[in-house]
Amino acid sequence: MQGMQLFFYELYGFLEFVCVYYSTILGFCAIISVFVLGVIMTLRSSLFSRMVFGKGVLWCMLIPVIFCGKLHAYYSTPLGVKVFYRWYELCSTRWISVLYFAGMIIIGTLLVVKRRGLSRMVNRLYDPGKYSSDYAMKEYPGRISSFCMGCLKPTIVISEDLLEDDAAVIIKHEETHIRLGHLWILLAYDILRVLLWPNVFLHLCVRFLKRDLEDICDAVTIQRNSIDISDYGKTLLRCAGNMAISGRKPGPRGGMSFAWDDDYKVLKRRLERIVGRKAYSVKAVKVLIAVVALLVVATTGVIKANSFARVNDIGKVSSMCFSNDTDSVFVDYDKAIVTGFDDECIYVDSKALLDQFPEAERADGFFYFSVGGYYKIPGIGGGGGWGELDVKEIHEGILKIPNHNEIDIWNRLIMWL
């Protein structure tokens, strides 16, 4: 019975550590993402406003953000301390950390339920049979903006009342979304929204990401399939008109929809880009993707090089207290009292110890020592060893105290995280 109680006590401590640690570093990432998202939105509406592929690659700036949780700058620079320390301090309050994790669970559950609901709706539809595609096809009995969904098993859903020529264009469009990996991009963005949920701008900006992906898909679909611009634009207009008549269906918002949007002006600008489009160089696009990939990897590498490692040794630092006043803890940074320690023993200078705690000469009690250990980020760590010393056992010279090492399975799991 006691063994079971000890197990659950240690499990609680482990989960509490995980909660505080990850809420702290993910909160830092959420703060950084606010600034990065501001840069993305500013550039896509100014310098990159006419660059279809340029706007798309701007969103890659969010990738390194997820690695920004353990930067040295948060603790070593005046700006870092000023901007981020408040969150670090809040996370030391356990309920804030629990609240952060609760938010992730709620947001994640809502997104999963939304995706599962869309998947169940699509599974109830019938295969039209009259259209050919490299991917599964489903036909919706009514007017709906055709869309694609499903990362592992992509499915294209089209409206039953589509004209044959329109259906051919739309199917090519949705196939392009799938081949370009846009469904995986949306999934990755949803995961980012879950992890960094306090940044409300991430949730608001998903529509802008979809718009940029639609522009890329339009350009690639038209050029790769040699579709007439006029026919493509007319198809888009007819689908948008059907949506206006029938009303927007909430289901397609979970995938990449051909004609759905929340703003007529946005649809108008999309048509203008289609009409005014110029052929792009496939080679230039490949070079752009390669350069962006290298920049993302390089940026991530720089971030990792300036971040705390997975496990950081505290070094030969020790702390101690006397049993008559356990609230008064002395930290020995200079190895004046604890001259050293190894896996077996802690070595204590008795004279220096009594000089620091003169009350011990006139009282009975115990000294408690904590030595070594590790930290993930400053203030959050564990491990190390401990020892105790009866005042009656103090004698001149160096004292040898048994070192009880606390690197158990829970600490090893924490070190691995």
What layout of secondary structure does this protein have?
Elements: H1 2-44, H2 52-58, H3 73-76, H4 78-91, H5 94-123, E1 136-140, E2 147-149, E3 155-159, H6 164-179, H7 182-195, H8 200-204, H9 206-225, H10 229-246, E4 256-257, H11 264-275, H12 282-305, E5 312-313, E6 318-322, E7 325-332, E8 338-341, E9 345-349, H13 350-356, E10 366-371, E11 374-377, E12 380-382, E13 385-390, E14 398-402, E15 404-405, H14 409-416
Parallel strand pairs: 1-3
Antiparallel strand pairs: 2-3, 2-4, 5-11, 6-7, 6-10, 8-9, 9-14, 10-13, 11-12, 13-15
Helix pairs in contact: 1-4, 1-5, 2-9, 5-7, 6-9, 9-11
- In percent, how helical is the residue content? 40-55%
Ranges with pLDDT <50 over ≥5 residues? none
- The number of helices is 14
Order of helices and strands: HHHHHEEEHHHHHEHHEEEEEHEEEEEEH
Q: Which overall shape is indicated by the principal axes computed on the Cα atoms?
A: elongated
Radius of gyration: 30 Å
Number of extended strands: 15
Widest sheet: strand ordering: 7-6-10-13-15
Portion in beta strands: 15-25%
Instruction: Report how far apart the termini are.
Output: 30 Å
Question: How does the major sheet shape up?
Answer: 5 strands, antiparallel
* pLDDT averaged residue by residue: 86
